[in-house]
Amino acid sequence: MNDIKKYSLTFAILILGFRVLAQNKEITHQNLYWARYYSQLIFTEKISWHNEIDNRTFFENNRHHHLIIHSRLHYKIFKNADAALGLTYSLQSPQDPNSISNLIVPEIRPNQEFNYLILVDKRLAIHQRLRLDERFFRKNNGIELNDGYDFNFRLRYRLQISYKIGPIESSKPTTLKMANELMVNAGKTIVNNHFDQNRVYFAIEQTFSKQIAIEVGYLKWYQQRATGYQYFDRNIIRLTMYHKMML
């Protein structure tokens, strides 16, 4: 009987703890649209230079949210795998479209990644990407920038499935994409948000030529903030233009 009471009390405490956590959890819902230009400059069969410009905007008030510029040099290790070294520069505007602040926080982000492609058949492909970010954020007090940078690591893993529809030998294929990416933080400045974010993505890509393709997609972005109990739940429409250039 005493054991039953003890386990009942433990169970009740756990239930109460989960309820308290649920009550303290604050979720901010936001809607955004992203416009991205992605270029690939192919030097040789093994070496290519990838560059992205990604401009992110809230639907609400058409307020700017984030500008990100990525640049990476890729080297093909073998037929279906490559490694890359890169640098990202970003300008983070306020996270609230109704904020009265105009503070823009720069970030410098060296990164390394490994990509592996599995060709299941002529239509279906599985893409895996593992990336490590070293993030240097300009220090600030929420009102103005201060001297110096804060630093943390971020590890990212993305699994993507792509499927070509229509005639299999078409030179202008239509491709369906589905992806899931998990990101985790590490470093001395990370206390409550070792889990950073999860991104689930659905898209359709239309190829128009050997150089040009257009992609339209929907991204569900769920992110834990530094406090640990606050989260962003974002719905995002993304438009991408892919541009491949051969040398």
Task: Walk me through what this model shows.
With 247 residues, the protein is mostly beta strands. It has a single domain, classed as Beta Barrel (Porin). The protein is built from 1 helix and 11 strands, in the order H-E-E-E-E-E-E-E-E-E-E-E. The chain has one helix at residues 2-24; strands at residues 26-42, 47-58, 64-78, 81-92, 105-119, 124-140, 145-165, 174-186, 195-207, 212-224, 230-246.
Give the CA-CA distance, first to last residue: 80 Å
The structural domain count equals 1
Largest sheet: 11 strands, mixed, barrel
Quaternary state reads single chain
Q: Uncertain runs with pLDDT below 50, 5 residues or more?
A: 16-22
Order of SSEs, N→C?
Answer: HEEEEEEEEEEE
Shape: globular
Q: Estimate percent helicity.
A: under 10%
CATH architecture name = Beta Barrel
Radius of gyration: 22 Å
* Mean pLDDT value: 92
How are the SSEs ordered, and which strands pair?
Blueprint: H1 2-24, E1 26-42, E2 47-58, E3 64-78, E4 81-92, E5 105-119, E6 124-140, E7 145-165, E8 174-186, E9 195-207, E10 212-224, E11 230-246
Parallel strand pairs: 1-11
Antiparallel strand pairs: 1-2, 2-3, 3-4, 4-5, 5-6, 6-7, 7-8, 8-9, 9-10, 10-11
Keywords:
globular, mainly beta, 1 helix, 247 residues, 11 strands, 9% helix, Porin, eleven-stranded mixed β-barrel
Summarize the structure.
The chain is mainly β.
